[in-house]
Write a structure and sequence with these properties.
It is globular, with a radius of gyration of 24 Å. It is built from 25 helices and 17 strands. Among the domains are: about 220 residues, 4-Layer Sandwich (Glutamine Phosphoribosylpyrophosphate, subunit 1, domain 1); about 200 residues, 3-Layer(aba) Sandwich (Rossmann fold). The chain has about 625 residues and is of the alpha+beta class. Helix content is about 45%, strand content about 15%.
Length: about 625
């Protein structure tokens, strides 16, 4: 797990050192640079040593220095790929460096290299003979890759802040990007919050031709469900056994490290499954588990995590977070984000990662389980939502919205009034917009009041609408999981996991995103994911006897913070964004005043605004 930066064109060694210096948190163990003055290319690298500390230094070159790579992430099938390449005549200098596999893999397979990889990765390979830069990002976008083409220079890095450290890397907030941010809670790739800065979409490659100065991107993989609707009961035992085997394999693959390793534990199904299988795989070596909790009961899961750890037999580490201390962390944490995303669980996730880093360098997580197997609450409402949208006339719907808006505001995690308002808000729009509107900070109807040049809803959500229409299945569960897997997972969950862990110089790994396991999920009919009102049905069947029964019986609980209480305690003054963002400052100020007076409780909009304001203030 590391960070890299580079550019081709105008600039010098001073620029690459400044760029790489912005990534010190991603790689505190080592720093290195490489330049080719003739081709005007400069590469920088920060290393968090995980594998082959003696021979894994980067930038790494092939035998004749014609190919150079910088790489962030882990290739979990690197040993199998090494054996395949050695059988084809390739000679390796390292003992078990996955970075060197990329060099030889590029020589053997060229631009098809990503198709052979099982891992989380972002890399850039400079091919001196062809004077081209070949870059790729893993299938779900676990590892970030940003780039910008300016007059005279092509910039790329693991974080936007590194791009902006270059003399020509400054950028300004994009009105479109800011509107997308308030629509989704993040900016979908390839866009960013900045006008001239892009992020490489998950499952994509990029080629920069230095001779022509051209940039071309293409998608080599996208999550798509290919299953049929039929889900007969007689197949459940065999499928559960296959799933259990694949998950065991995925965990084993992610246990390879030359440094201490542990597991994030919430007490929910996904993280408990990872812990149980890791403990089984490590045997007498044992495994460490890590949990943080809050003193607010509706947000605290530490007791469940402690019980699960006791039954599994892990070396459990627990820390209860003081609310005042945690609040003090917010300004600095939000200011460090290269691009804001409105997920309040960033703070507890970072606190957990920082706590774990006191003991280990790598931690496995349960990320991806909800998206692949159907763990989210909206799945249970899809049938009723479809029925409601067909039969309830718009005047009655508007009346119900006003009635729910008048309900007392709850402060608990996912309070009833919050869920009702969110549900009805989504049902004001076409089904293809339900999911992003349910999750987004701002109602599309409010963009006219909030922005000088508001985008219409079909443009705000064009990415989600396109994915909805292109889904081969017309089943609402399949289409919803396609949305979550292609948007919410990479842009919110995995972006949060990467930033929160790397700010603590910790590597986070997600076994549920294993290539073989994901392929299995893509072919799995929705009737095995949501069955008889039970979410994650097949996963629970596969885990019987693996995780404690009380975990399987628990209701889902998100990893959040007491957001409403915290926002009231913050009492921010009137906040203004730069005029270039195109946002009406009086609108945001009015929302904050209404919140302080108890007249409204749109916590997600206010949190999103707070995050963006903090980001703009630290630029």
């Amino acid at each position: 797990m590391c960070g890299f930066a580079g550019f081709i064109g105008a600039g010098d060694v001073g620029d690459i050192k400044l760029m790489t210096g912005r990534l010190a948190h991603r790689g505190p163990d080592d720093e290195a640079f490489w330049s080719d003055p003739e081709n005007r290319i400069h590469l920088g690298f920060r290393r968090l040593t995980i594998l082959d500390s003696s021979h894994g230094r980067q930038p790494m070159h092939n035998g004749d220095n014609s190919i150079t790579v910088v790489f962030n992430g882990e290739i979990y099938n690197h040993r199998e790929l090494r054996a395949t390449l050695e059988a084809r005549g390739h000679h390796f200098r390292s003992d078990h460096s996955d970075t060197e596999v990329l060099l030889h893999g590029y020589q053997a397979w060229g631009d098809e290299l990503p198709l052979h990889l099982d891992g989380m990765f972002a890399f850039a390979i400079w091919d001196a003979y062809r004077r081209r830069l070949f870059c790729a990002r893993d299938r779900f976008g676990e590892k970030p890759f940003y780039f910008a083409a300016r007059a005279g220079v092509f910039l790329f890095a693991s974080e936007i802040g590194a791009l902006q450290a270059h003399a020509l890397g400054e950028d300004e907030l994009s009105s479109v990007g800011v509107q997308k941010y308030f629509a989704y809670g993040y900016v979908p790739a390839p866009g960013t919050i900045y006008r001239h800065t892009c992020k490489l979409p998950p499952g994509s490659t990029l080629v920069f031709d230095a001779a022509k100065g051209s940039v071309n991107t293409s998608r080599y993989w996208r999550f798509a469900i290919t299953a049929e609707d039929d889900a007969p009961a007689h197949r459940i035992p065999a499928l559960a056994e296959e799933l259990r085997h694949l998950l065991e394999q995925a965990v084993r693959r992610r246990l390879e490290a030359d440094v201490p390793l542990g597991v994030f534990l919430s007490g929910g199904i996904d993280s408990t499954a990872i812990l149980a299988l890791a403990a089984k795989a490590r045997g007498d070596l044992g495994v460490d588990s890590f949990t943080i909790g809050f003193r607010e009961r509706s947000y605290d899961e530490s007791a469940y995590a402690r019980r699960a750890a006791t039954e599994i037999g892990s070396r459990h580490h627990e820390r209860i977070v003081d609310i005042a201390g945690a609040q003090r962390e917010l300004p600095a944490l939000l200011g460090r984000l290269d691009e804001p995303f409105a997920d309040p669980s960033l703070l507890p996730t970072h606190l957990l990662a920082r706590f774990a880093r006191e003991h280990v360098t790598v931690a496995l997580s349960g990320d991806g389980g909800d998206e692949l197997f159907g763990g989210y609450d909206p799945l249970l409402a899809l049938g009723a939502a479809a029925f409601y949208s067909r039969l309830v006339p718009k005047p009655l719907h508007a009346l119900l919205c006003r009635a729910v808006a008048a309900l007392p505001r709850g402060k608990g995690n996912m309070s009833l009034d919050f869920r009702l308002r969110r549900t009805l808000r989504g049902l004001s729009y076409a089904p293809g917009m339900w999911n992003p509107v349910w999750l987004g900070p701002l109602d599309p109807n409010e963009f006219v009041a909030c922005f000088d040049n508001p985008l219409p809803p079909n443009e705000l959500f064009e990415e989600a609408l396109q994915a909805w229409e292109e889904c081969a299945s017309h089943n609402l569960v399949d289409r919803t999981l396609t949305f979550y897997s292609n948007f919410y997972l990479p842009e919110m969950i995995l972006a949060k996991a990467d930033r929160a862990s790397m700010f603590a110089s910790l590597e986070s790994r997600a076994p549920f995103l294993d290539r073989d396991l994901v392929t299995f999920c893509q072919r799995l009919p929705h009737g095995y994911k949501l069955r008889g009102g039970t979410r994650k049905f097949l996963l629970k069947e596969a885990l019987r006897g693996v995780v404690p029964d009380f975990v399987l019986a628990r209701k889902k609980k998100g990893f959040g913070i007491p957001l409403t209480t915290w926002l009231h305690q913050l009492k921010p003054a009137e906040m203004a964004l730069p005029a270039t963002a195109g946002m009406k400052t009086d609108y945001a100020a009015a929302r904050w005043r209404g919140f302080a007076a108890g007249q409204e409780e749109e916590r997600l909009f206010l949190w999103a605004h707070l995050c963006l304001t903090a980001h703009a203030g630290h630029r």
